[in-house]
Amino acid sequence: MDEKELKRIRIAKRIAQEFPDGAVVNLGIGMPTLVADHIPPGKTILLHSENGFIGLGPRPEKGKEDKDIVNAGGAPVSIVKGGCFFDSAMSFSIIRGGHLDYTVLGALEVDEEGNLANYMIPGKMVPGMGGAMDLVAGAKNVVISMEHVNKNGAPKILKKCTLPLTAKGEVDLIVTELAFIRVTKKGLVLEEIAEDTTVEEVLKNTEAKLTVAGNLRRF
Amino acid sequence: MKQIKTAAQAVEAVKDGSSIMIGGFMVCGHPFTLVDEVLKKGLKDLTLITNDAGFPEKGIGKLIVSGQTKCLIVSHIGLNPVAGQKMHSGEMEVQLVPQGTLAERIRAKGAGLGGILTPTGAGTEVEKGKQKFNLNGKDYILENPIGADFAFIKATIADKNGNCFVAKSAKNFNLVMAMAADCVIAEAEKIVEPGELDPELVTVPGVFVNALVSAQINDRSF
To answer: What is the largest CA-CA distance in chain A?
Structure first.
């Protein structure tokens, strides 16, 4: 397994530990989807799929796909026992109304005030926000799953986001391959660092001000 | 009883400049037959209201590639690069709307509401040009209802009174769109007599539906 994949798994494993048993969780397409594979034994979570169901299950084997069961990326998936289907207005009432416990999404940038930019780069990448703005505005807990720096090695955790915002002040947790950071009213708190890094390395790769927790832990 | 039409008859009144809501989410629950029929008409200046731009070679994506669409009101165009190109070149206007806001604006029209107040998009570019309200310490933006001349929806089973059962995650936008257009055409995989569809299983009440068409294309290759 390459280094990039190992980083992603580490992030997914750490986020998976956050959910209480029975939590209803929406996982964004891409890296956040990996979280589903790392839920600790003995715990069950229910995955919400914004196109219209709770109880998202794995992709069926080839030939067993159901054209009427897809995930928010349009890929074939399944529904677990005890799941339920609904239409888009209901799906987003669940999201916006605060009935979704967690949403896990990627980010281009996130900042000290919990602002998130993850849906466009003007002039370059303008795919539309899909359900991201509703998810971030509505979910009880917003968790960002991302690599600590961008592909040029520049920090993604900034003093202030420079790209157009997906939502203002809604992020609760930022989990990267290096750090577990909580967004508080007083700013960003570095609560945990990865087992193979140092506080200095985390600070060097972060533009935002980080307060190091008194009881800093490792993950 | 609702009229059962051929796809060609059903889209006869669709003209240059018409606005059409089209159900589906990444072509799941998408009325392929009706969309292909409009494509054949070679219209221009259509306004399409739909969740996403689909794929270039499938369903609604083809109406974008063919240049018949002047304005697209959607939440996502990421899997149809042609939509992005036409947006950047100015050939097609694209209004990007958060998915939940899109669903609720359409529902508002169908439910007779004057608009909705939503926290989604507050503090972002989405709030530009819109009225903002601070209620109980939280920011909301006023979003207008969206209606259309036509809605094409997809049903798994429709009875001849227009009641539709839409299976599983194919429901998506099909319910709200049926509420919000002047003329609603349901493309059904199966059309049955009144009484043959269990009233407990109705997703879209027949009161919203004007005409039925038998689905000729149900393919959804993965």
So the answer is: 54
pLDDT band at B56 (very low <50, low <70, confident <90, very high): very high
Q: Where along chain B do its domains lie?
A: 16-96+147-214, 103-145
Active-site positions of A read: 50
- Chain A residues within 8 Å of chain B (Cβ atoms): 49-53, 65-70, 72-76, 79, 85-89, 91-92, 95-96, 115, 123, 126-134, 137-138, 164-169
Contact between A87 and B176 using a beta-carbon 8 Å cutoff: yes
Instruction: Name all domains of chain A by residue range, CATH numbers in brackets.
Output: 3-218 (3.40.1080.10)
Picking from B84, B175, B219, the nearest residue to A89 by CB comes out as B175
Q: Quote the mean pLDDT of chain B.
A: 96
SS3 A100: coil
* CATH architecture assigned to B16-96+147-214: 3-Layer(aba) Sandwich (3.40)
* The pLDDT value given to residue A29: 85
pLDDT at B222: 65
How many contacts (CB atoms, under 8 Å) link A and B?
154
pLDDT in tens, A51-73: 999 999 999 999 999 999 999 98
